[in-house]
Structure to design on (224 residues):
């Protein structure tokens, strides 16, 4: 298990930065992992940023984030107004936003989109994450989609049935606007998590998969 030794060396109350282009991305990509992190570090700082949402979807995003972070005591949720599907054309403004974010948050662990994601908004957020947080532990989550861009992931976070149920229930409860999309259903979320669970032999059957670009193995005497 890759995550445990690295996080054990983090500060007692790590700062976790969660970045998502759209209102439901963080939950789909790493919602189960967030639930596990909150369970392990209820006093960790969770900084959650959604870059694009209109007023209705902001309500959904905030309600969902509150659900996933219900048992966390130190949380910040930001919902921004960048125009969906046009992220590459507002790269400069997004870059400025990341520079401001860098001044506010120095994370121990960052969750972002995959660099190889076929959605242009997702890809832009991933590029800017890697440009901004160069000396940080960044994990890229995956989003199932029509383009079929998923491969095998090298990093896994196992989930048990209860964690999987909570993730799916929160997604279905909070994102009413997405329910008419053919892919937005419990089978999609459970199916992908079950496959990732098979790949890492997860005891609880389910898992979330992540990509990591630069992973540095830490030792106790590396810490100042
Ligand atoms: Zn998205």
């Amino acid at each position: 298990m890759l995550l445990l030794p690295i996080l054990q060396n983090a500060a007692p109350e790590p700062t976790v930065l969660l970045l998502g282009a759209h209102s439901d991305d963080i939950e789909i990509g790493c919602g189960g992992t967030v639930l596990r992190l909150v369970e392990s570090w209820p006093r960790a700082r969770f900084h959650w940023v959604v870059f694009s949402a209109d007023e209705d979807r902001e309500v959904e995003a905030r309600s969902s984030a509150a659900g996933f972070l219900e048992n966390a005591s130190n949380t910040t949720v930001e919902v921004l107004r960048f125009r969906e599907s046009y992220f590459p054309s507002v790269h400069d403004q997004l870059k400025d936003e990341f520079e401001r974010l860098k001044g506010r948050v120095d994370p121990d662990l960052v969750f972002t989109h995959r660099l190889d994601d076929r959605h242009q908004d997702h890809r832009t957020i991933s590029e800017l994450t890697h440009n901004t947080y160069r000396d940080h532990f960044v994990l890229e989550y995956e989003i199932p989609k029509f383009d079929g861009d998923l491969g095998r992931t090298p990093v896994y976070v196992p989930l048990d049935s209860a964690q999987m149920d909570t993730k799916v229930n929160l997604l279905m409860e909070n994102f009413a606007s997405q329910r008419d999309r053919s892919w937005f259903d419990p089978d999609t979320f459970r199916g992908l998590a079950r496959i990732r669970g098979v790949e890492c032999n997860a005891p609880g059957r389910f898992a979330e998969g992540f990509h990591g670009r630069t992973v540095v193995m830490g030792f106790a005497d590396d810490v100042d």
Q: What stands out?
A: The beta strands are 15-22, 45-52, 74-79, 109-113, 138-141, 155-159, 206-211.
